[in-house]
Specification:
The complex is a heterodimer.
Chain A: H1 3-18, H2 36-47, H3 50-61
Chain B: E1 2-4, H1 6-13, H2 19-26, E2 30-32, H3 34-44, H4 47-56, H5 62-73, E3 79-81, H6 84-97, H7 102-114, E4 117-120, H8 125-134, E5 138-140
Parallel strand pairs in B: 1-2, 1-4, 2-3, 4-5
Helix pairs in contact in B: 1-3, 6-7
Classes of the chains: A mainly alpha, B alpha/beta.
Chain lengths: ~70, ~140
């Protein structure tokens, strides 16, 4: 790792700490429950390629979001 | 600490991820990145994805559909995410070392700042080589 990158990581860690971004107590809402049948369907869509097909359409429009 | 991709995040939000990962999320040890969060939100609103979800769950009326998209659009407090203020200076330095797209650059920068592993379901060659060069642990998992 270059000294510049090392220094940038150390500074970023300090900024994140001061900003409270490393804390487990974060702003935001609690997790909203997803009904069981819907949760099962979401995972099925992850596994059967439907989610990946949506990602392929998104990436075609925006290559910065591609897995590469 | 873990930095997870959008597919893993979807499984966590649906509470269908592996149990240790759900426990880590409840303990505040799981982070994602802005680009993975954005990609998940776009996928959830993709016509093909939301249409398939509606067909699979016949009881998905408008109220329930809104409840589900809200649950997936709004990142809960249990999932951490670093801000651009923290990530960008590291991403700039990373760009001097390796050409990465936004998605991978945020992931590697987040892991370096947090001292975290990256946990993904799909790892491309650029992400693998960047992690290897920079000493970031990369785990490829199934969800």
């Amino acid at each position: 790792m270059s000294p510049e990158l090392q220094a940038a990581v150390a500074r970023a860690r300090a900024v994140a700490e001061v900003a409270g971004e490393l804390s487990a107590r974060r702003p935001g809402l609690p997790r909203s429950p997803i009904p069981g049948a819907v949760a099962d369907a979401l995972v099925a869509l992850l596994r059967d390629g439907t989610y990946d097909a949506a990602i392929a359409r998104i990436v075609e429009d925006d290559p910065e979001l591609a897995d590469c | 600490m873990l930095v997870i991709d959008d597919r893993t995040l979807l499984a966590v939000l649906a509470e269908r991820a592996p149990e240790p990962l759900l426990r880590a999320a409840d303990a505040g040890e799981v982070f994602t990145t802005p680009a993975w969060y954005y990609r998940l939100a776009r996928a959830v609103h993709d016509v093909g994805f939301s249409g398939s979800l509606s067909r699979m769950v016949e009881v998905l009326d408008d109220d329930l559909r809104r409840q589900v998209t809200d649950a997936l659009d709004e990142l809960p407090a249990t999932i951490g995410i670093l801000s651009a203020r923290v990530l960008v200076p590291v991403m700039v330095q990373l760009s001097q070392v390796r050409r990465l797209n936004l998605l991978n650059s945020e992931a590697v920068a987040s892991a370096m700042v947090l001292g975290a592993h990256i946990q993904v379901t799909v790892a491309g060659e650029l992400l693998r080589s960047a992690c290897s060069i920079l000493g970031v642990e990369l785990d490829v998992i199934s969800v």
